[in-house]
Amino acid sequence: MIHCKCFTIILSLCCLFGFAQQEDSVMIKKIADEILSNGRAYEDLRLLCKTVGGRLAGSPQMYKAESWGQKTLQNAGADKVWLQQCQVPRWTRGGKDEAHISDQSKKQSLDILSLGNSNGTGLKGIMAPVIVINSFEELEQRKSEVPGKIVFYNYKFNPLFVKTFHSYSDAVKYRGAGASRAAKYGAVAALIRSMTHAADNNPHTGAMNYNDSFPKIPAAAVGLKDSDMLIDILAKNKTAQVFIKTNARMIGDTTGHNVIGEIRGSEFPDEIITIGGHLDSWDTAEGAHDDGAGCVQSIEVLRVFKGIGYKPKRTIRIVLFANEENGLRGGTKYAEEAKAKNEKHYFALESDAGGFTPRGFGFNLAADRLQRIKQWLPLFVPYGVYEFNAGGGGADIAPLSSTLGTPVAGLQPDSQRYFDIHHARSDVFEAVNKRELELGAVNMAALIYMVDKYGL
Ligand SMILES: [Zn+2]
Question: Burial of 344 by CB count in 10 Å (0-12 exposed, 13-18 middle, 19+ buried)?
Answer without folding.
Answer: middle
